[in-house]
Structures are given as C-alpha cells and as structure tokens.
TrEMBL record:
One of its GO terms (biological process) is regulation of transcription by RNA polymerase II. The gene is MED9. This is Mediator of RNA polymerase II transcription subunit 9. Its main location: nucleus. It comes from the Eukaryota. Component of the Mediator complex, a coactivator involved in the regulated transcription of nearly all RNA polymerase II-dependent genes. Mediator functions as a bridge to convey information from gene-specific regulatory proteins to the basal RNA polymerase II transcription machinery. Mediator is recruited to promoters by direct interactions with regulatory proteins and serves as a scaffold for the assembly of a functional preinitiation complex with RNA polymerase II and the general transcription factors. Keywords: Activator, Nucleus, Transcription, Transcription regulation. One of its GO terms (cellular component) is mediator complex. It is found in: Nucleus. Belongs to the Mediator complex subunit 9 family. It comes from Hypholoma sublateritium (strain FD-334 SS-4).
Length: 122
C-alpha cells in the first residue's frame, strides 16, 4: 500500500457490519436460542475487529500523533504561509520588468594588436 493512499475499505465495511449486528438484535426471536446468540456474537466480533483495524489505520496516518488543537494550529500556519506565497506571486507577476541595455565600451590597446606582435618604439 502506498503511503499517500487512504485505505477507505477499512471504513466502508464498518456500516454493513454494524447493520448486521443491529438486525440480529431486532429479530422477533431475539437472542433466545443458542444459534441466534452465536450469530449475534459472531457479528459483534466482526464489527469489533473491523473497528479495531480502522482505528489502527487512522492512528498511523501522518499527523495522527497530533492533538486536534495542534492539527488546527498546523493547518492555520500552513494556510497563512500559502496565502503569503500567493500574495508574493501576485505582487511579482504584477511588476513590470524593465530591460536596460548596457552600453559596454572597450578600450583596445593598439600596441597589443600589431600584426607582427612586436612593439615599435616611435
């Protein structure tokens, strides 16, 4: 399983298992027979195990070790940072870039450019 994939299947199976438990408890015969008690116990254990798995998965999600208040603080800080970056980008994109051509002049040493490479004393 990839680290970024949220395992939805653990949570999708909770409701049907809970419904199975509730249906068994609402039957007219109830839990009067050993067979019905056994089915109810099995359904309750299935729900309990699925709930434990879902709890383990949610506890191991990144950020799951943070309290709600800490998560809210972290979310607020990240949203503030995002908004500042957006404002900086908007400000930068609104600026006009002015290109200035630079006039570079070079002085050429006439002695260094003589054809024979010799320096004459005049």
């Amino acid at each position: 399983m990839a680290a970024n994939v949220f395992p939805v299947s653990y949570y999708e199976e909770l409701l049907p298992k809970l419904v199975a438990v509730l249906e068994l408890t609402q039957q007219p015969a109830g839990t009067s027979t050993p067979e019905s008690k056994q089915r109810l116990l099995q359904a309750a254990n299935n729900f309990k195990n699925a709930l434990a798995q879902a709890k383990d998965v949610s506890g191991n999600l990144p950020g799951g070790e943070l309290r709600i208040e800490e998560q809210d603080d972290l979310i607020y800080m990240l949203e503030t940072l995002r908004d500042r970056k957006r404002a900086q980008l908007a400000e930068f994109s609104a600026k006009k870039i002015i290109s200035r051509s630079v006039d570079i002049t070079m002085e050429v040493d006439s002695l260094a450019s003589t054809p024979n490479g010799s320096v004459s004393d005049e």
